[in-house]
Amino acid sequence: MQFVSRRPIRAAAAVLGLAFLAAAPARAQAPLDLVAPGRLTYGVAATFAPFEFSKDGQLTGFDIEFGAAIAAKLNLAPAPLNIEFRGLIPALQGRRVDIINSAMYINAARSEQVDFVPYMRIGQQMVVRRGNPRGIKGRDDLCGRSVAVTLGGIQETYARQDAEKCQAAGRPALTVMTFPTAQDSALSVRQGRADAYYESTAGVARIVLELSDAFEATGEIFEFGTQIGLAVRKGDTATAEALRGAVQAVAADGTYRRLMAKYNLPPEGSLF
Q: Can the keyword Signal be found in this entry's annotation (predicted)?
């Protein structure tokens, strides 16, 4: 369960041409400056199921399989590097990784630091304890309550905005509790330390399916227009274009939709 944010390539132009939509002509691709020759090294914070998480000591999830499919289109071997979410952008800027592939939400602050290749839309929803003992039916019901979020994640931004609304309306304060991972947020709700937590639509689907005896979703989905994307260093157009072509190829051959279905991701989130 989870809820809580990955370089260059020396791939043959013919590979990209064939990988594009069938009707698209092959285009010459500028060589990319990879961290490790023949490998697509990407940063991932493996604490955000179903996108990236660890199972039996192995990295798995949508982004892990998606990353492998993208690397294959570029004739490269996938090389994920598990990093704490807050360290992903510094790792990219410091050239420890070629790209970030970790369901990173695209926002203005991050777009000032990196460039993105979008690949999916994500929404948000609240999760409460099974039976909803506090009777929380929407975000407006949280004034005077506590909400758990992942430190530094987009959910913290929404929670802070909700807290400001409670204050501006003269209502009881909303307490925002921050945790290192979405799992920690969920645990705080399960233990009754927090009344609710904000989770992505993908994370909600997973936790409600796997732990329906402990959690349930409540309230409407909000901010469904948020996009997630692969991140490259600012101004690295060669890598961005190579990724864009590979992503289109992965969508065109059906892999993208197959992976969305496998990991229970809502089809409305597709960008293709």
A: yes
Shared domain check, 54 and 21: yes
Domain range holding 98? 13-120+227-266
Distance CA(264)–CA(262), nearest Å, equals: 6
Strand 58-60 relative to strand 175-179: parallel, antiparallel, unpaired? unpaired
> What CA–CA distance (Å, rounded) separates 234 from 259?
29
Confidence of residue 3 (pLDDT cuts 50, 70, 90): very low
Flag whether 218 is in a domain.
yes
CA distance 46 to 43: 9
CA atoms within 13 A on the CB side of 28: 1
Q: What is the 3-state secondary structure (H, E, C) of 64-121?
A: HHHHHHHHHHCCCEEEEEECCHHHHHHHHHCCCCCEEEEEEECCHHHHCCEEEEEEEE
State the CATH number of the domain containing residue 199: 3.40.190.10
Residue 51, classified by CB atoms within 10 Å of its CB into exposed (0-12), middle (13-18) or buried (19+), is buried
pLDDT tens-digit map of 151-177: 988 899 999 999 999 999 999 999 999
Smallest Cα–Cα separation from 245: which of 9, 78, 4?
9
What is the pTM (predicted TM-score) of this model? 0.67
Considering only CA atoms, give the Rg of the chain.
19
- In degrees and rounded to multiples of 5, residue 46 shows phi and psi of -80, 60
**pLDDT at residue 30 tops 70:** no
pLDDT beyond 60 at 219: yes
